[in-house]
Amino acid sequence: MTSALLVPLMVVAGVATSLHTQDIEYGWADRQREACRHLPFPVAEYAAGWAGLGFGLAAVAVCVLLARRLRRRYGLRLGEGWPGLLAGTTVWFSVLAVPMELIQLYAVYSAAAAGINLGDGC
Questions:
Q1: How does DSSP assign 56-87, residue by residue?
Q2: 93 — alpha (psi -120 to 50), left (phi > 0) or beta?
Q3: Per-residue pLDDT tens digits for 14-30
Q4: Which site among 24, 36, 59, 122 is 20 to 30 Å from 93 CA-CA?
Q5: Which of 79, 67, 91, 83 is closest to 11 using CA atoms?
Q6: How far is CA 22 from its chain centroid?
C-alpha cells in the first residue's frame, strides 16, 4: 500500500513545483534588468510549470487506481482502511490544486510572450 503514501507526496510536489515557476521568472527578470538587455526565456520555467500539473494529475490517477485495487482485491471502499483514507482525503487537495497549477502554467506562457520592461536606465 505504498501507493497511498505517494498521493500526498505528489500533491505537495505539484504545488511546490508550480509555485517555483514564480521564483524562476523573478530571477530571469532581475538578470535582464542587471544586464540591461533581453535574455532568452528560461526553459526551466516551462519544465516546472508542466511538472507541477503532471504531479497534480498523477496524484488523482494514483488515488483512482488505488481505489480500484482496494475494491477489487480486498473488497474495501476507499475510506475503510488507512491507505485509502489517506489517499482519499489528500486527493481533494490535489483536485483543488490542479486549477491553480493550470493558472500557473498559463502565467508561464503569458510571461514568455510578454517579456519585461527593462526600465529607463538602459
A1: HHHHHHHHHHHHHHIIIII---TTSSHHHHHH
A2: alpha
A3: 999 999 998 998 888 88
A4: 24
A5: 91
A6: 12
Q: Which residues are CB-contacts of 11 (< 8 A; sequence separation ≥ 6)?
A: 55, 56, 59, 90, 91, 93, 94, 97
Q: Count CB atoms within 10 A of the CB of residue 47.
A: 14
Contact yes or no for 98/56 (Cβ under 8 A)? yes
Task: For residues 56 and 60, give the distance between their C-alpha atoms in angstroms, rounded to a whole number.
Answer: 7
d(C-alpha 63, C-alpha 85), whole Å? 10
- Please tell me the pTM assigned to this model: 0.81
